[in-house]
Design brief:
This protein is an alpha/beta fold. The chain has 13 helices and 11 strands. The two termini are about 25 Å apart.
C-alpha cells in the first residue's frame, strides 16, 4: 500500500483550515502523513491545527517564504511515494486520494494525476459550476493555453517527478533543493507544471470526478488580477531562458489565453470595464482564439459586453440563468466521462 505525503501550507486561513484538515483525515485512503507547514501564519490557524490529535499529523514551522516555499519545505520533509497538495482554504471529497492512487498505480507513465474541481464560495457553498479541463493527451501546447490541473489542490504527484525537476539555489543563506520556484509569489503552480512538461517525459493526466472543492475568494481575486497577469508574463520569461523556441512558438498564444481567462474572472467580479479590456486584449494578441475555442471565447466576449452595457438587475437575472445552464451541462459531462472510464 503506497504511502502518501499530504502537504498543507498554512498562512492566514483560520476560517477554513479546520475543515481542510478534516477533509484529509476523513479520506477513504488512510496510508498517509499530513504535513502542515506553518508559513509564519499571523492568525490562529496553527492553534486550530494543534487541536487535532491524529498521529499522522506533523506541524512544521518556518519563517515566511510564501506558498511555493511552504510546499518546498513539505516536499523536503515528505516520506511518501506520492505527494498531494491541499491549500488551506480548499477541501477534498472523501475518495480523493483513493481515486488518484488507483489512477497512478494503473498508469505508471502518468506522473501527475489531477481531478476536476467544483467551485465553492467563501462560505463553502457550492456554486454549481466546475473547472472542466482537458483530461488526457495533454501536451506542452495545452499547458501554454491554460492549466489543465486548474489549482494547487487538485494534483497528486509521484515523488520521482519532483526529483526530475529539482534544482539547487541559495536564497536564504544555505544551498537547498527547490521544486516550486520561490521567486514567484503567484503563478508558482503553472510555472512548475510547465517545467514538468518541458523537462521530463512524465505524463500529466486527469480523472473525471470533481474531487477538489476550490474556494473562489472574490476579494483576493479582485486585488490580484493585474499582479497575476504580471506573474504570468514572468513565467513566460523564465521559460524563455531554457526553452526559447517554445516561447517563440507559443508566447503570444499563451498570453492571449491567460488574458481571456482573466476576463472571465473579471466577469465573475462584475467588473465590466476590466473584463472588456481583457478580452479585447486577448483577441488583439492572438485572434485565433475565436477559431481554436470559439464557444468559450464568444461566451466571454458576450458576457463582458453585456456586463458593461446592460442594467445590473437585467444582467444579474441573465447570469443566474446562464450559471444554471452551464452547471447542468458540466454535471452531465462529468457523469458521461465517469461512465466512459
Amino acid at each position: 500500500m503506497k504511502h502518501v505525503s499530504v502537504i498543507i501550507p498554512v498562512y492566514g486561513v483560520e476560517n477554513y483550515i479546520a475543515a481542510a484538515v478534516q477533509s484529509v483525515l476523513d479520506q477513504t485512503y488512510t496510508n498517509f502523513e499530513l504535513l502542515i507547514i506553518d508559513d509564519e501564519s499571523p492568525d490562529s490557524s496553527i492553534k486550530i491545527c494543534q487541536e487535532f490529535s491524529d498521529h499522522r499529523i506533523k506541524i512544521i514551522h518556518q519563517t515566511n517564504r510564501g506558498l511555493a516555499g511552504a510546499r518546498n519545505t513539505g516536499i523536503r520533509h515528505a516520506k511518501g511515494d506520492y505527494l498531494a497538495f491541499l491549500d488551506g482554504d480548499d477541501l477534498w471529497l472523501l475518495q480523493k486520494l483513493e481515486r488518484h492512487i488507483e489512477h497512478l498505480e494503473k498508469f505508471p507513465e502518468v506522473g501527475v494525476s489531477f481531478s476536476r474541481s467544483a467551485l465553492i464560495d467563501e462560505s463553502g457553498n457550492l456554486l454549481n459550476t466546475y473547472l472542466m479541463p482537458k483530461l488526457k493527451d495533454i501536451t506542452r501546447s495545452d499547458l501554454f493555453r491554460s492549466s489543465p490541473i486548474g489549482n494547487g489542490s487538485a494534483p497528486v504527484i509521484r515523488r520521482e517527478v519532483f526529483e526530475a525537476i529539482k534544482y539547487q539555489d541559495n536564497l536564504y543563506g544555505t544551498t537547498e533543493y527547490f521544486y516550486f520556484d520561490e521567486n514567484f509569489r503567484r503563478a508558482e503552480d503553472i510555472e512548475c507544471w510547465l517545467r514538468i512538461a518541458i523537462q521530463t517525459d512524465w505524463k500529466i493526466e486527469g480523472i473525471p470526478e470533481a474531487l477538489t472543492l476550490y474556494r473562489v475568494n472574490s476579494a483576493s481575486l479582485s486585488a490580484n488580477l493585474v499582479k497575476q497577469l504580471d506573474s504570468w508574463k514572468q513565467v513566460l520569461e523564465k521559460t524563455r531562458s531554457y526553452a526559447p523556441e517554445l516561447i517563440e512558438k507559443w508566447g503570444n498564444l499563451a498570453l492571449a489565453y491567460r488574458l481571456r481567462n482573466f476576463a472571465r474572472s473579471a466577469v465573475r467580479l462584475k467588473d465590466g470595464p476590466m473584463s472588456v479590456k481583457l478580452i479585447n486584449g486577448a483577441l488583439a494578441t492572438y485572434w485565433r482564439l475565436l477559431l481554436e475555442e470559439p464557444s468559450r471565447t464568444l461566451r466571454t466576449l458576450v458576457a463582458a459586453y453585456l456586463l458593461l452595457l446592460l442594467p445590473k438587475p437585467l444582467y444579474s437575472h441573465l447570469e443566474v440563468l446562464a450559471v444554471k445552464v452551464v452547471g447542468m451541462i458540466q454535471r452531465r459531462q462529468i457523469w458521461q466521462d465517469q461512465l466512459g472510464q
